[in-house]
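INTERNAL AUDIT FORM
Audit reference: QA-55
Scope: verify that the stored structure record matches its stored sequence.
Auditor: D.O.
Record contents follow.
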Amino acid sequence: MRSIIWGLIGGIYGGLFIGFKELISSLGYAGIAVIAAAALAGAVGAAFYGSIRVAVLGTLAGLFSGVTYLLAIAEADIQHLATLAAFCGIVVGFIYGTLRPAVSGALMKSLTGLVSGGMAGALIWSVTSLGINVNDFLVAGILAPLTGTFYIFWMFKVVDNLQCKLPLPLVGAIVAGLLAVIVAGSVWKIQGALLNAVDAVTVQSQNGSFGEILACITSAIAGGAIAGGNFAMIGLRWLRPD
């Protein structure tokens, strides 16, 4: 069972990672794209684990604001889009945090996921900086279980010993706001890619990119499933109830 769960989580992580990597590279930060993408993917995955409801609200806020802005504004500006998405996410997160206490662990777990993903991404970056060429298929298969391993280690070392002192409405606002910005940025990137697919060559390139994304997701599923199965066999603790 743990192997299946880790495989599913790995697939989500792999899709997030490759999407964030493409987005960050397109913004001119290709040199640190692996580290940043791994960190963001870890943070988003941990946010869903910490409080799936506030994570879903933040995701929906990002989708709504992103799609609405791109439909309403002819010349989209990523900074204006991010501001709108952050506002929508903060509002819904604040309201949810006011009404529900279940958001309490979301921020600390998201930060733990961010650090865990960043550490895993830094290891991959250090390898590639030595001139060793590693394709995204292999990177995703390594990063997913590596980030998960760092996460369950730091979760019990950090989250168990540090308590978030922020008011729950503020926690909900921070988590949902950040998720909304990330999702809206992804919507902006997808819209740009679709607009650029205007000829057969570009369409073929987009199809190739889609195949690469599927390959990365498949690799991450396999990596997560293998790691989860091994952790189950050695009896490693991996769940925290709150």
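Auditor finding: record pair retrieved intact. The chain is about 80% helix and 0% strand.
Action required: none
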